[in-house]
Amino acid sequence: MHRTSALITLTAAALLAACASAPTNPMSFFITSNGSGQGANLGGLAGADAHCEKLAEAVGAGGKGWRAYLSTTGAAGVNARERIGSGPWVNAKGVTIAADVAQLHGNNNLTKQTALTEKGELINGRGDTPNTHDILTGSTADGRAVAGDGDSTCGNWTKSGEGSAWVGHHDRIGLRDDEPSRSWNASHPVARLQPGRAQGDRRRRAVLLFRDPLTRRGLRPGSAAARSRRPAGHWLHRPRS
């Protein structure tokens, strides 16, 4: 399995989101501090986005067009990178994660110290107990849906206890010193993300959230109107099938 500030919502993994309050909260990215309680069944993209919005509202950052960094597959499939806007994105402490979509999927500033929750808290990684570094994305390293017939999104984020989904490591550390282990969005697939199971519980925070100002202004992500409002080069299209 393999994505407008940007929201990443990972129910068995982690979410990224951002919002503003009074005084202005510059946050436009976060990892969810908790999941939906239903494993990888997030209620589809709409349910994942709603969960992100709820968490953002709790810290005074709601109503900003939060989007979970999740891809979906099939005829109406969506690439995570096309859901999250053009950037830049900053965490709850005001630290910049990436300036734009290209940097987010390249030389970004995502580490265990910067990939914070909406509350500005660190999330356990490798070497901590429990290790909760897996983040649900259903995406490839460049933020696109995983190709092929296999399930990479737990049924487009509607299944719990069956199917499988691709995850990343927010701490950029894995079992080996290689690119997949260091990937924040495409480390490996995980099966049976079910609440109550050790595997599912361990990944309860895994969703990334990003804020999209265009969505807040009523522009649907991917629409011609939304694309016309983005700086040239920042809107990245899905490959033609």
Shape: globular
Which CATH class is shown? Alpha Beta
Q: Give, in order, the helices and strands.
A: EEEHEEEHEHEHEHEHH
Q: Helix count, per DSSP?
A: 7
For the CA atoms, what is the radius of gyration? 16 Å
Sheet-strand content, in percent, reads 5-15%
Q: Write down how many β-strands occur, each being a DSSP E stretch of 2 or more residues.
A: 10
Describe the structure using short key phrases.
single chain; 241 residues; alpha+beta; Mannose-Binding Protein A, Chain A; 3-stranded antiparallel β-sheet; 10 strands; 17% helix; 14% strand; globular; disordered N terminus; disordered C terminus
Describe the protein.
The protein has 241 residues and is of the alpha+beta class. It has a single domain (1-217), classed as Mannose-Binding Protein A, Chain A (Roll), CATH 3.10.100. 17% of the residues lie in helices and 14% in strands. The protein has helices spanning 44-58, 101-104, 154-157, 179-182, 198-202, 213-216, 224-228, and strands at residues 5-7, 13-14, 29-31, 66-68, 89-90, 96-98, 134-136, 164-169, 188-191, 208-211. The strands form three sheets. Strands 1, 3, 4 and 10 form a four-stranded antiparallel sheet that branches. It has a three-stranded antiparallel sheet with strand order 7-8-9. It has a two-stranded antiparallel sheet with strand order 5-6.
